[in-house]
Amino acid sequence: MKARSVRITEGPQRGLFVVHVPLSRFGKDEAVLELSAYNELVALKLYPNWSILGGGVYARGPNGLRLLVARVLTDAKAGEVVEYRDGNPLNLCLENLAVRDGFSTKHDRALLIEARDRLEAENAESIKAGSYHPRFRKPLIFRPDSVVKSRRRGRVVYSQPQGAVPR
After folding, report:
1. Is pLDDT of 146 > 70?
2. Is 46 in contact with 62 (CB distance < 8 Å)?
3. Could you report the per-residue pLDDT of 152-163, keeping only the tens digit for each?
4. How many CB atoms are located within 10 Å of the residue 108 CB?
5. What are phi and psi of 66, to 5 degrees?
6. Measured between alpha carbons, how far is 31 from 74 in angstroms, rounded to an integer?
7. Secondary structure percentages of the chain, helix, strand, coil, to 5
8. Across the chain, which distance is largest between two alpha carbons, in Å?
């Protein structure tokens, strides 16, 4: 079944864009984070299907690696814990996240980077051998150039100008 799509809205400050990532396929909850942070996660090959589990937002990385998104964003090391300043684990904006000493045993960002590098090496080997078949559609890194108001209330659509080449 296809995952729900990600929404982008303009934040409280002019020029700041906020991404709303749906949690699970059928739920109504959404995680909220800045566009630049979302693009960074996509570049690290974090899959767009996110879920909430145990009071935190989790996502899958390459090879089935399950990671806490807030730990990846803050680069929390082993022995550090991420806390949410407003108490809402769905608010993943960087101003809402703080790192303090705690009980964690893994460094999620380092694990994700290692898994991404391993996946890219495997893909390069299979391309060289002539047996590469992409498993997933490549996720888009959003770069909104213009704002188009939608007829639906509260929805804003971002598009590139006519004839523009995606970067």
Report:
1. no
2. no
3. 555 555 555 555
4. 24
5. -100, 125
6. 16
7. 25, 30, 45
8. 52
